[in-house]
Amino acid sequence: MRAVFATDLSDAIETALESRICLECLGRYGITEVHLLNVTSPNVTTGMPGSDVGRQTRRGLERQADLLREEGFDVETHVVRGTPHRRINGLAEQVGADLIIVGSRGKSPLRERFIGGTARDVARTAVRPLLVQRIVETEDEHEIANEHLFQRVLYATDFSENAERAFEQFRYLQEATQEATLLHVTPPERRSEPDVVEDAEARLAELADRLEGMGIETRTVVREGEAVEEILAAEAEFDPTSILMGSRGRSRIRRLLLGSTSEKVTARASCNVLLVPPRQFG
To answer: Which residue range forms the structural domain that includes residue 269?
Structure first.
């Protein structure tokens, strides 16, 4: 399996690549080949006489590539110019990537996390599964929020086709996931409908049986309320290392928009987020 790993050559990304635990988790997910990509601004000139930008970029990229090679990954490096999210998604399609990885830096003292511009734009347009890896900034260093990327997964589902597609990720996660929480949030206006909660509980139980068969310890939770708030409340209660959910497109266009629930959860969650886009339409 292939991954496109976006790097801006910052200390934050270096911290992620230096984490043996993170890289082992990617290996258990099934990743064996990594395309390490740096996107430079179209305004940055690397070829002028006396310019050292190109050499510095290549040197930094090779240093990070060596960290991946030391953990047994096959690595190819890419330096391109352009708009980051377009180049990241373009390379992912070109090489047939199974996963895109981008870092998102949040400031730990703040109650509400935030997603960086590049990560947000990739999430809104990705046609491949996307791992938004949370990297926490402290005063003088960076830390990985959850090094065991997929050890505990919170799967949020509305039982839509795209949510079912996200659930298929457990085929790859089963070697890396020990515990899963399956969550459905019922809008308050539907709680009065006959059998709504019982139906949701039964559907979650069926999914739980499938995961238990994979050796993953599973719990099911049905909550009432606003989806984003309840997903974040479940994150606080169950302490997952990643949230898994689908990002629903709003039209059959090539560039798919991120659903508002997915976007808000990705922006505000403290842990990693694994987003699965809708199937591509021909």
So the answer is: 152-276
